[in-house]
């Protein structure tokens, strides 16, 4: 039996789908499929977690060996206890996500309805929008649910600060030239936005620390094109704001300002995605370099 066949057999014995196994190991379902078809081999840490999940030794997982000595002594392994906790983990996580998502949606609906009844406005549903978004994420996203909920909350906060007050993280680069007339409280909030963004980037990089993009010409070209597009769009947005919007007085909520802020926000979040992919490609380069040595 090959390693892939052993993984498929043990997964079936534990009544786990490929998606459940992927959630337990924090990998993609495609990775599990490649393992089971012997298209790729799991890394050592994943092999150890697989052995723990299935309640077998590493030799039994890799070679398909069974615990014959124990059977000969009449000490049959306790298959119910071995890996029982880890096998139930994917289902337990899914159930927890569903419960949390339902609670968030119910609280959001309750807040919206109460404000509508007592204040006669639908603004309560806008106020409860973060609850709706996080609840939907909990019900639909299977991996890194907490990370995506945190990003949803940060994006909502950052967009509100941008549209309502004009504050963005980039204001911190004007710290040395900031004056009393500019209001130091606004600078403080700009630093808070920037520090929250840096925290989210650090958490995202840590969450994807095992993500690897294969080092190759195609991936290098795609990533380089992505960075060029990002830098080009940022430069174009700056020119557009300076020469078109800045040429005449424009209300803060006019369509040119709203469009600029929206595109600039999308560009900022695209930079975070490109950064994660760049680090993953760097890991791929390190792996390819270590294999050639």
Specify the number of helices.
Answer: 13
Order of helices and strands: HHHHHHHHHHHHH
Assembly context of the chains: single chain
What are the segments in which pLDDT stays under 50 over at least 5 consecutive residues?
67-88
Q: Distance between the terminal alpha carbons, to the nearest Å? A: 31 Å
Q: State the helical fraction.
A: over 70%
Rg estimate, integer Å: 25 Å
Biggest beta-sheet profile: none
Strand content: under 5%
Q: How many strands?
A: 0
Mean of residue pLDDT values: 82
- Going by helix content, strand content and strand pairing, the class is mainly alpha
**Outline type:** globular
Topology:
Layout (H helix, E strand, L loop, with lengths): L2 H11 L4 H8 L3 H8 L7 H11 L3 H6 L4 H5 L11 H36 L3 H5 L1 H12 L4 H21 L18 H24 L9 H27 L11 H38 L1
Helix pairs in contact: 2-3, 2-7, 7-9, 9-10, 10-11, 12-13
Overview of this protein structure:
- With 293 residues, this protein is mostly helical.
- Among the domains are: 3-72, 434 Repressor (Amino-terminal Domain) (Orthogonal Bundle); 211-293.
- It has 13 helices and no strands.
- The longest helix has 38 residues, at 255-292.
- The two termini are 31 Å apart.
- Residues 67-88 have low confidence and may be disordered.
């Amino acid at each position: 039996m090959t390693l892939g066949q052993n993984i498929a057999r043990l997964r079936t014995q534990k009544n786990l789908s490929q998606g459940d196994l992927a959630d337990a190991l924090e990998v993609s379902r495609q990775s599990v499929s490649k393992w089971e078809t012997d298209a790729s081999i799991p890394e050592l840490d994943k092999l150890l977690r697989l052995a723990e999940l299935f309640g077998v030794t590493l030799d039994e997982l890799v070679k398909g060996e069974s615990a014959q000595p124990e059977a000969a002594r009449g000490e049959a392994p306790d298959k119910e206890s071995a890996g029982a906790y880890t096998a139930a983990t994917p289902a337990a996580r899914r159930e927890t996500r569903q419960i949390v998502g339902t609670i968030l949606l119910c609280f959001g609906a309750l807040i919206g309805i109460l404000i509508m009844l007592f204040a006669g406005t639908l603004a309560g549903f806008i106020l409860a929008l973060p609850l709706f978004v996080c609840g939907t994420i909990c019900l639909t996203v299977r991996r890194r649910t907490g990370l995506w909920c945190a990003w949803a909350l940060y994006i909502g906060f950052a967009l509100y600060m941008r549209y309502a007050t004009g504050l963005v993280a980039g204001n911190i680069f004007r710290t040395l030239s900031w004056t009393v007339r500019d209001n130091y409280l606004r600078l403080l909030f700009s630093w808070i936005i920037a520090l929250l963004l840096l925290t989210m980037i650090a958490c995202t990089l840590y969450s994807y620390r095992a993500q690897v993009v294969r080092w190759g010409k195609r991936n290098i070209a795609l990533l380089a094109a992505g960075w060029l597009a990002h830098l080009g769009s940022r430069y174009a947005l700056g020119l557009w704001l300076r020469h078109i919007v800045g040429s005449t007085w424009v209300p803060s909520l006019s369509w040119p300002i709203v469009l600029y802020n929206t595109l600039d926000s999308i560009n900022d979040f695209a930079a975070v995605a490109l950064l994660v992919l760049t680090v993953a490609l760097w890991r791929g380069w390190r792996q390819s370099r270590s294999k050639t040595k």
